[in-house]
């Protein structure tokens, strides 16, 4: 192999690697742009919030209970709740399609729809 052949192979490999990285980044950004946090209260939809906009939403219930949904950095979490057990507050941040946070005492469910799917089938904490 001559010197120019080696240079040509290296250039082709670098261009291919750059294309793969750019395609993956564009695909992941497109998935986050379409991901939504859907909040349901007692089985009825309360609201839909895109994950690409940072915001804090207070979910008020008729009985005076509440949950605070925080969306930041493309992830959703419950940062505050009026329930005693606080399981929903200690839940990890969610961002994959199908991820959920449930507050049973307040009957609040936060679910991610759209966006990218998680390649892990299950996890325990």
List keywords for this structure.
alpha+beta, 125 residues, three-stranded antiparallel β-sheet, four-stranded antiparallel β-sheet, mini-chromosome maintenance (MCM) complex, domain 2
Question: Can you walk through the features of this model?
Answer:
This protein has 125 residues and is an alpha+beta fold. The protein has a domain at 35-113: N-utilization substance G protein NusG, insert domain (mini-chromosome maintenance (MCM) complex, domain 2), CATH 2.60.320. Helices cover 29% and strands 34% of the residues. The protein has 2 helices and 7 strands. It has helices at residues 3-34, 87-90; strands at 36-41, 44-50, 55-60, 66-72, 75-81, 100-103, 108-113. The protein has a 4-stranded antiparallel beta sheet, covered by helices on one side. The chain has a 3-stranded antiparallel beta sheet with strand order 3-4-5. A hairpin with a 4-residue loop joins β6 and β7 (108-113). The longest helix has 32 residues, at 3-34. The mean pLDDT is 87.
SSE layout and pairing:
Blueprint: H1 3-34, E1 36-41, E2 44-50, E3 55-60, E4 66-72, E5 75-81, H2 87-90, E6 100-103, E7 108-113
Antiparallel strand pairs: 1-2, 1-7, 3-4, 4-5, 6-7
Cα distance spanning the termini:
54 Å
Q: CATH superfamily assignment of the domain at 35-113?
A: N-utilization substance G protein NusG, insert domain
Q: Sheet bearing the most strands, described? A: 4 strands, antiparallel
Instruction: Identify the strand order in the major beta sheet.
Output: 2-1-7-6
Basic shape: elongated
Spell the H/E element sequence: HEEEEEHEE
Rg, please?
A: 21 Å
Give the helix proportion (percent range).
25-40%
Quote the beta fraction. 25-35%
What is the third-level CATH name, the topology of the domain at 35-113?
A: mini-chromosome maintenance (MCM) complex, domain 2
Average residue pLDDT: 87
Count of extended strands: 7
Number of helices: 2
Structural class: alpha+beta
Enumerate the spans where pLDDT stays under 50 for 5 or more consecutive residues.
Answer: none
CATH class of the domain at 35-113: Mainly Beta
Tell me the CATH architecture of the domain at 35-113: Sandwich
């Amino acid at each position: 192999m001559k010197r120019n052949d080696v240079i040509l192979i290296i250039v082709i490999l670098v261009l291919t690697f750059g294309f793969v990285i750019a395609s993956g980044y564009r695909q992941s950004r497109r998935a986050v742009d379409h991901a939504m946090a859907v909040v349901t209260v007692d089985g009825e939809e309360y609201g839909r919030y895109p994950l690409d906009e940072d915001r804090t939403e207070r979910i008020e219930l008729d009985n005076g209970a509440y949950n605070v949904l925080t969306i930041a950095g493309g992830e959703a979490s419950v940062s505050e709740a009026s329930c005693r057990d606080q399981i929903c507050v200690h839940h990890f941040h969610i961002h994959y399609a199908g991820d959920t946070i449930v507050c049973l005492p307040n009957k609040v469910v936060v679910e991610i729809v759209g966006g990218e799917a998680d390649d892990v089938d299950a996890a325990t904490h």
